[in-house]
Amino acid sequence: MKRILFAIALLGGAAAWAWLLVALARQSGHAPAAPISMPISLPELDELEARMIHAAEITRRWEYLAERHRQVSAIACEQLADAATRREVR
Fold first, then answer.
1. What is the DSSP string of the chain?
2. What is the rounded end-to-end Cα distance, in angstroms, of the chain?
C-alpha cells in the first residue's frame, strides 16, 4: 500500500512540475517552434556540406599557420636575445 501511495505521489509531483514548466514558458513569451514549411532539398544539403568541409579545411590551415608562426616567433626571439647578449670585440 505504501508503494502505491508513493507512486501516486511521485506521479502527482511530476505532473505539478510539468504544469509549472508550461506556465513559466507561457509567461516568458516563448512561442512554439514554427513548423517547417518547405524541406531542404538534397542539392542544397550537398552544397551546405561542401561549404562546411571547405570552411573546416580553411580553419585547419589557419591553425597550422598560427602554430608555425608561434614556433618561428619563439626561435626568432631566442636568436635576437642571443645576438643582443653577445658582444664581438675586434
1. -HHHHHHHHHHHHHHHHHHHHHHHHHHTTPPPPPPPSSPPPHHHHHHHHHHHHHHHHHHHHHHHHHHHHHHHHHHHHHHHHHHHH-----
2. 103
d(CA 50, CA 44): 10
Place of cell 512540475: 17
Rounded CA-CA distance 3/84 in Å is: 82
Q: Which grid coordinates are listed for 72?
A: 618561428
Instruction: Phi first, then psi: give them for residue 76, nearest 5 degrees.
Output: -65, -40
Backbone angles phi, psi at 41, to 5 degrees: -80, 160
23-66 pLDDT, tens digit each: 887 776 655 666 666 677 788 888 999 999 999 999 999 999 99
